[in-house]
Amino acid sequence: MPATAVALVVAAGRGERLGSGGPKAFVALAGRPMLDWSIDALSQVAAIEQIVVALPEGFEAPQGAIGVAGGAARSQSVLNALAAADPGADLVVVHDAARPLVTAALIEACIAALDQDGRWDAAIAAAPVKDTVKRSADGVGVLETPPRSELWAVQTPQVFRREALESALGRSEAELAAASDDAMLVEADGGRVRLVHCESENFKVTTAADLALAERLLAGSAELRVSGV
Ligand code: CTP
Ligand code: MG
Fold first, then answer.
1. Is residue 42 within 8 Å of residue 9, measured between CB atoms?
2. Ligand 2 midpoint to CA 229 (Å)
């Protein structure tokens, strides 16, 4: 029997670095709220039976999704969404609303990577790092240069076996508050996480320049859809 999945979309952030004056997930992007692009992609995936969105105060979930209140930190928003999701699903897909360029194909690839290989607890989208990366503790002195061939820029979707995510989200409040993704909590919990190679085009909209680039890419794809290409 194919695995069943629920999707949790975290959309409750304030978007401070974008500085648009409102929550980032609801900023207009190629004619619709940024969040709607991710909901569209997730809705096209057959294995996903339910979509739960963690929302900022005063905003509602798009049609077809269940809304819950977001938390103070990203991990808390994931926890709140998980609490409202069907507890019977095998897999949980976590996705940032700030990644509107996600595709159904990438979500399906992450689900398949986990579903078809019992060795892993999580499968996460990751692109090879293009820049050489240095480590520095103080932002001035360079401590080391890790080999670039071993470095991956991690994105969402991140897909988890439900029990593994539940256990990882039970770690300490300090760990949850510091976590920039969910896979690192699974790693700390002793879970096995695998990469699913993807394109860097699935970037996170963080700054105004990112928003402008996403607008160009998505407006172009909308024109293709309208003209039936
Ligand atoms: N997020 C959330 N709840 C929070 C913080 C973040 O649901 N308390 C979500 C954001 O809405 C976003 C994703 O987590 O979809 C990744 O976070 P980030 O890109 O940092 O978005 P913001 O926190 O909104 O932006 P900023 O850090 O610039 O304020
Ligand atoms: Mg943030």
1. yes
2. 36
Distance 109 CA to ligand 2 centre (A): 26
Other CB atoms within 10 Å distance of the CB of residue 95: 27
User: What tens digit of pLDDT does each residue of 82-140 get?
Assistant: 999 999 999 999 999 999 999 999 999 999 999 999 999 999 999 999 999 999 999 99
Ligand nearest to the CA of 19: 1
Q: Which domains does the chain have, with CATH numbers?
A: 5-227 (3.90.550.10)
Over residues 141-192, the pLDDT tens digits come to: 999 999 999 999 999 999 999 999 999 999 999 999 999 999 999 999 999 9
Asked if 143 and 168 touch (Cβ cutoff 8 Å), the reply is no
Query: Looking at ligand 1, which atom is closest to the CA of residue 54?
Result: 7
Asked if 38 and 93 touch (Cβ cutoff 8 Å), the reply is no
Pocket test for ligand 1, best of 8, 9, 10, 76 (most atoms within 8 A of CB): 10
- Tell me, in angstroms, the distance from the centre of ligand 2 to residue 227's CA: 37
